[in-house]
Amino acid sequence: MNNNVDIEKYFKPDLNKARKRSKQTIEELQFNLSDAHHKIGVDKTYSIHTYGCQGNEADSETMAGILELMGFANSSTEENSDVIIINTCAIRENAENRIWGELGRLKKLKRQNPNLILGLAGCMAQEVNVVDRVMKKYQHVDLVFGTHNIYKLPEYVETAMFSKERVIEVYSQEGDIIENLPKVRNHRFKAWVNIMFGCDEFCTYCIVPYTRGKERSRSKEEIIKEVSELVDQGYKEVTLLGQNVNAYGKDFKDVEYTFGDLLKDLDKVGIERIRFTTSHPHDLDRKTMEAMRDGKHIMPHFHLPVQSGSNPVLKKMNRHYTKESYLKVLNELKEIVPGISITTDIIVGFPTENEEDFFETLDMVDQANFEGAFTFIFSKREGTPAAKFEDDTPEEIKKQRLYLLNEKINDGYLRGNQRFLNQTVKVLVDGVSKHDDQVLAGYSEHNKLVNFRGNRDMIGQIVEVKITQAKTWFLLGEAV
Ligand code: SAH
Ligand code: SF4
Ligand code: F3S
Question: Counting ligands in written order, which one lies closest to the CA of residue 94?
Answer without folding.
Answer: 1
